[in-house]
Write a structure and sequence with these properties.
Oligomer: single chain
Structural class: mainly beta
Distance between the termini: 39 Å
Length: about 210
């Protein structure tokens, strides 16, 4: 191949409602994240730090935060009041399809084409669990709203429900604005090999 030509487009890859305000986040194929007021039909802000398409996007339910995941293998946590990326989480080895905050714990779940589901503590900025078992791209993963469960869907034609009750021991209780007072910096989190097979997540059900 002599050269490769790419063109950016505004195709929308991901969406998230704000839990209280009339806002929508839209993540685009171009790498831009847009913040819209859907009642006024106006673009409030735009965030542009990802290299390539951004597929996963999610507002935090109480903090002025959102999380994004893209084809650059990066997960970024943003503060929309400060209008900046607070830090970057690295560990996935392929495109990130979806990202989502936990409703209670300071956790993020991410699904990737590297066939894993990862759970991150956004206060300590560390990967706390790597769930393996799918044998194709993991297209989606999300937390149960109340139970210690994660559900994932893959191109291997299975839906898996994971018991993550073992992660409670590693959890840090939500502490309001604590994380927001930490120094703002980019951290490249390296996943420790000991995380694999740690027993923090076990397949409970497989739907084929």
């Amino acid at each position: 191949m002599l050269t490769k030509f790419e063109t950016k487009s505004n195709r929308v890859k991901g969406l998230s409602f704000h839990p209280k305000r009339p806002w929508i986040l839209a993540s685009l194929h171009s790498g831009v994240i847009q913040l819209w007021d859907y009642r006024m039909g106006t673009l409030i802000d735009r965030f542009d730090e990802h290299d390539g398409p951004v597929r996963g996007i999610h507002f935090h339910k109480s903090q002025p935060l959102f999380v994004s995941g893209g084809d650059d293998y990066k997960i970024k946590v943003w503060n929309y009041k400060l209008r900046r990326c607070l830090f970057t989480l690295l560990g996935h080895l392929d495109y990130i399809r979806t990202v989502a905050f936990h409703s209670e714990y300071p956790w993020i779940v991410s699904a990737s084409d590297d066939q894993t589901i990862r759970t991150w503590n956004w206060q300590s900025r560390q990967c706390i669990s790597v769930l393996t078992g799918h044998n194709h791209y993991v297209m989606c993963a999300m937390f149960h709203p109340k139970e210690d469960l994660i559900v994932s869907a893959s191109l291997d034609q299975t839906v898996r429900v994971w018991d993550i009750s073992g992660l409670r021991k590693k959890s840090v209780a939500p502490s309001g604005e604590e994380m927001l007072r930490l120094p703002q910096m980019n951290l490249q989190m390296q996943v420790n090999a000991e995380l694999f097979g740690s027993g923090d997540g076990v397949v409970k059900y497989v739907l084929e």
